[in-house]
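Tokens help. One example:
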Amino acid sequence: MNRRTLLPLLAAPFLPRLALAQSGWPARPIRIIVPFAPGSFTDASARLVGQELTEQLGQQVVVENRGGAGGTLGATAAARSAPDGLTLLLTDNSLAMSVGLYPALPYDPLVDLVQVSRIADSPSILLVKPSLGARTVAEVVAMARARPGELSFGSGGQGSSAHLAMELLLNVTGTRMLHVPYRGVAAAIAEVIGGRVDMAIASLASGVAHVRQGTLLGLGVSGERRAAALPEVPTFIEAGVPRYDMSYWWGIAAPKGTPTEIVARLNAEIATALRKPRLVEAFAAAGATPVHSTPEQMQAHLAREVPLWKDVITRANVRPE
């Protein structure tokens, strides 16, 4: 091998870093769009990750809440943003659910967004107002069967992840309830606490504090093992509903066309942030587990989720507002 052949090979590993240096990325503040109202774990996780990235990159990372239409308004804004690595989307299961909900969706999450990394997972939890009188999942199911359509559940909006999570539970238990949509899951949980609706399903990250405070009862969590954050709450398997296994996930994406070297740098910086003790502790306190993935793994995960939620949406005949 001569010198002319050897030099490009030696330089190859440094080309992405050189390209970033030449482009000056990030030359301006980075915006993370959260497609939901403040108060949810999606919002909190964006601020936690944003704080770490601000310190690591030496550039301000700001969070912008753009709620509405089950997360699609914010996702649309992100997909239509310039692919310069300065606009990111931090979202959850709703990204996969939107495909089945909106036939005329203005973006395709599998095509118009570049997946950067998964950042967290959390079990779902059934949250019930104490005054309902139910102390187990079995008792809730028995009540729903005895009074079809009378019990109510709140969600973060028609077609939101909290809505479809409950529709999946109703489907596997053969029950019916009244759906009451709100502007964000935090508002729905507040209504359960206030006693105006009977229950809600949310991520453990969104409900753990209320169960610890005793303002809500946690009757079941998804997954094969009990959640470390609430070890007293049985799994749905233990509660007699083994077919219910809906878990929440969160991830970061960027507009299609974002340079691969920027995606790779973001992925590496996110991995570093997710290892920070203060972030790990904050996630754990909220009932979430940091999860890093490659862009390819996140893309494959999203591709698996899309048909699963299409089926739930079709069976429940869910129509967006």
